[in-house]
Amino acid sequence: MLKVTGELTGHLNLDWGWDPLCPGIELVIAPKESGRGLEHQLMDWALEYLFMNTPAHSIGMDVPEWDAEGIQLIESYGFKLAGRFRRGGIRHGKYFD
Questions:
Q1: Exposed e or buried b for every residue in 35-61, given b needs 16+ CB within 10 A?
Q2: How would you write the pLDDT of the chain (97 residues) with one tens digit per residue?
Q3: How far apart are CA 7 and CA 60, in angstroms?
Q4: Rounded to a whole number, what is the distance in angstroms from the first to the last CA of the chain?
Q5: Least C-beta-crowded within 10 Å: which of 18, 21, 47, 62?
Q6: Which residue intervals of the chain are DSSP H helices?
Q7: For the chain, what is the total number of helices (H) and then of strands (E)?
């Protein structure tokens, strides 16, 4: 968890699940803190840690189709869409991928 000025600002989780070669990154930044560069700071740290200190050779992330800022963030790091989890959740009463 990331706190700035005493408030919860974000969350970063690195998850190996069953495959140590392909860990997952979960990154959430509070909407009011978005755009301040915290996303990039956390992503830089996570990628450096995973590729320099673990056997990881691939990274997995789930970014819902409605999260344009999240998609833009991961694309800025060179990540490409590798697949979709159809109907992965419900937002505003409708399923999303």
A1: eeebbeebbeebeeebeeeeebeebeb
A2: 556 667 778 889 999 888 889 999 999 888 888 888 889 999 999 999 999 999 999 999 988 888 888 899 999 999 988 887 787 778 888 887 7
A3: 28
A4: 26
A5: 18
A6: 38-53, 68-76
A7: 2, 5
